[in-house]
Predict the structure.
Amino acid sequence: MRLKYYDRNIRDKWADYLTHTLHHSKEELTMLAYKMTFY
């Protein structure tokens, strides 16, 4: 993963958002996490 500590706040916010909106879809969550990591 290329995300480092300076992205922690952003990742935490996204994690909270995704947890509340897509917690029923782990595949979608994984895809978004992948995109966040490599884009």
Residues 8-22 form the longest helix (15 residues). The chain has a mean pLDDT of 72. The two ends are 11 Å apart (CA to CA).
